[in-house]
Amino acid sequence: MTGSRRVSFSILVVFVALVITSLPSISASPPKAGSTCVKPGLTKSYQGKKFTCVKSGKKLVWNKGAVAKQSASAPTSSKTSAPTPSPSTASQPKETFTPWSSKFSTEVMSETAFASFVSWAKDQSARPINHQILIQSSVSGYSPNILEDLKVLDEASSKVFSQFMKKKSVTVLGLDEQWVVSQILGSGGNLRNMQGRCDELIGVNYFCMNRDSHLGMVIINDCKVPKGSVLGCNLGILPHEYFHLIQLNLADNLEGAHWNYGEDYAKNSFPHWLVEGSADFVASAMVSFAKNSKYEYSRSEHLPGVPGSMAYALMDYEVYRPSGNNLYSYNIGHIATEYLVASVGFQKFLDIWRDYSNTRNFYTSFEKVTGRNITTFYSDFEKARESLGVPPVTRKRS
Fold first, then answer.
1. Count of beta carbons in the 10 Å neighbourhood of residue 247
2. Whole-angstrom Cα distance, residue 189 to residue 187?
3. Range(s) of the chain covered by CATH 1.10.390
4. What is the CA radius of gyration of the chain?
5. Which residues, including other chains, have CB under 8 Å from residue 36's CB and lie 6 or more apart?
6. If 0-12 CB within 10 Å is exposed, 13-18 middle and 19+ buried, where does residue 225 land?
């Protein structure tokens, strides 16, 4: 190598060395998520975070970093308080219903009542079933769509309630009245209180029942329930009527007044709002339970709106005479039953009927079972009307 070439080479080496030493070192520069690093697993702490060199595709880059754990010996400030969680992240306590309260969410109250029913119903799975169903499945090859849903509801209702029957309950489902009547009579039933007929129009079909064991339905209008729905076909009518049999058997009241007729002999019987309202509640709850549906759906079918007649005080719905100017007690009775069940539970609710078999006095049994006399209950209900979704009292029954 000539002298001039050696000088040139030396100058080049010095220049390259200067350039390299002037570039920032990758390992010395602050780590930044996604920037290049040189060795997998290499870690570096920066501004309270610990970054790790990881492989991303074909590149080595710094990860997002993790907050570095504070050393046990690191000093802490005694004045530092934990940050207050924001409403969006804080765990919100679930609203609950307080028995006999006046301020609450209508939905929470009704769902509390339904939950109590479901819990009770599930506990009945081991009870013996004391029931029979007879079905006229077809006439000239015709079989109603509604039959399958009715069979499901009848099975569910009898599974939890037939244990209270003094003798076997029987449901008869048919397509003509003569067949239904013949099956009721042939299975040991009677229709004395129906003058031997099965022709009471309820909804869009005919019903009949005696006071002790038998329920009949004549299907004259078919209906197909949409898949996944519980609405549109009045499915609750069957469990509603079946629960009337349970009321009478639980109370051992096959011969006495079913409700308060306004006559002296019936004055200690059950208020009409409770007889019909509880049957509506059980019907809604049973449809939801049997069809694995939300209670609010079947409830809405039984409570299609708040009729003006609910503007009377609850006690005005006690008496229902066989004829005359009667108040529609089903809706307000349904809501009052929910309020009662939500407060004491479904088992105690049934115990009111059962205890009547000993006292023969609804008012005595009500106070004995619930710990509240009926006057106090009525007062509780009136104070809670707004929360219950019931309009204020603006009318007085004469």
1. 21
2. 6
3. 106-388
4. 37
5. 26, 59, 60, 61
6. middle
Higher-confidence residue of 344 and 47: namely 344
Model confidence over 90-132: pLDDT tens digits?
A: 556 689 999 999 999 999 999 999 999 999 999 998 899 999 9
Q: Is the model's pLDDT at 192 over the cut of 70?
A: yes
Residue from 204, 226, 230 nearest 217 by CA: 204
Q: What CATH number should be reported for the domain whose range is 106-388? A: 1.10.390
pLDDT of residue 324: 83
Which helix (H) or strand (E) is 185 found in, with range? helix 177-186
Q: Can you spell out the DSSP letters for 51-87? A: EEEEEETTEEEE---EEPPPPTTS---TT--PPPPPT
Name the pTM for this structure. 0.76
Under a CB-based contact definition with an 8 Å cutoff, are residues 14 and 7 in contact? no
Strands of the sheet with 214-218, listed across from one edge:
131-135, 169-174, 214-218, 205-209, 200-202
Evaluate whether 382 touches 155 at the Cβ level (below 8 Å): no
